[in-house]
Amino acid sequence: MKIFIERFNNICDDFDFKPTSSKTAKFVGIPTSTLGKYMTGSMPSAEAILKIANAFDIDTDYLLGKTNIKNRSKTIINLDDLSSTEVTEVQKYIEFLKSKH
């Protein structure tokens, strides 16, 4: 739950919102009192997580701490203009970077 609170706070900061403000509540479509409960440790429902993710255009997995990528759909790399050899090199480099962690 701590990761959700941290990530929600960070996303709100990105948008210059306070996590429990009426502005945030209206933006995500969740009552301010409910947002306040999340900030004190109550687990949001799946529906609430989806509302928050959709409002801020982020992945639910990011909010839940399953990935550090806020929006995976924005991280897709277009390799169409590369040759098959170049694509293979890119794939090898990605695997190399993954192995370092």
UniProtKB/TrEMBL annotation:
<dbReference type="InterPro" id="IPR010982">
    <property type="entry name" value="Lambda_DNA-bd_dom_sf"/>
</dbReference>
<dbReference type="GO" id="GO:0003677">
    <property type="term" value="F:DNA binding"/>
</dbReference>
<feature type="domain" description="HTH cro/C1-type">
    <location>
        <begin position="25"/>
        <end position="63"/>
    </location>
</feature>
<protein>
    <submittedName>
        <fullName>Helix-turn-helix transcriptional regulator</fullName>
    </submittedName>
</protein>
<dbReference type="InterPro" id="IPR001387">
    <property type="entry name" value="Cro/C1-type_HTH"/>
</dbReference>
<dbReference type="Pfam" id="PF01381">
    <property type="entry name" value="HTH_3"/>
</dbReference>
